[in-house]
Amino acid sequence: MKTLRRWLRPLKRWFNRNFRIDAGIFLSKPIEQDDPLSQDGSVEVADMTDVTDLRPDLPFSREEFDRRVQEGHKFFELFVDREPVSYNWVACTGANIGVLHDLRLEVPENALYLWDGATVPGHRGKGFLSVMINGILQDQRQNTRIAWTAVAVSNKSSRRALAKAGFEPMFTYVSVQLFGRTLLSFVIKEGRLAKAQPEFDRLAREPVSV
Asked: How many CA atoms within 13 Å lie on the side-chain side of 39?
C-alpha cells in the first residue's frame, strides 16, 4: 500500500496543478452618506494612489502598481500610530476587474469593488481590516452608493472581517478549470443555478441608485 501511495503521489500533484475548482462569495454593502466614521487619532486611512516612493515590502512591483492605477484602481493603506498595518485596492467606476479565473466585472457608476486586501501578519486578528474598509467607504462615499467585494469560500478569517464591516452575501460563484481553460462557471443565488458571467454583466449594466 505504501508503494502504491508513493507511485500515486506524482499523479495527485499533477491533477491538483491542472484541475481546479474554486468558489467565492460575492458581497455588497450600501455606503452611508451621513454616517461619519469615528476613530481615535492614532488611526488613519490614506489614499496612496499617487505615492511616488513605493515601500519595498509591498507584494507587488512598481510596474504592477502603476499598471493598476492606470487601469482605474486606487490603493489605500491603514496606518496605526503611523505604522502601516493593512492595505486594500479599490476598483472605481469604469475599471474592469478579474473576479475568478475568466470571470470579470466592469464597475458601474456609483459603485466600487474592493480587492486584493491584506493585513501585516503581526497585526492580524485585531479587526484592522474591517476598520480600514470602513475608512475607505467613508473616503469614497461622495457619489458612491454601494461597495462590492468577493472572498474565497475557504477564507473564513476574511469572511468574518467582511461581515464585521457590514458586508452581506449576494451569491456564491464557482469556476472549474482544466489545463488553465475554464470548463464551467456558475452562480448559486436564492437556491438557483445560473451562468456566472451574465450575472456579473448584469451588475455592470443595472444602474446603482443615488
From this structure: 20
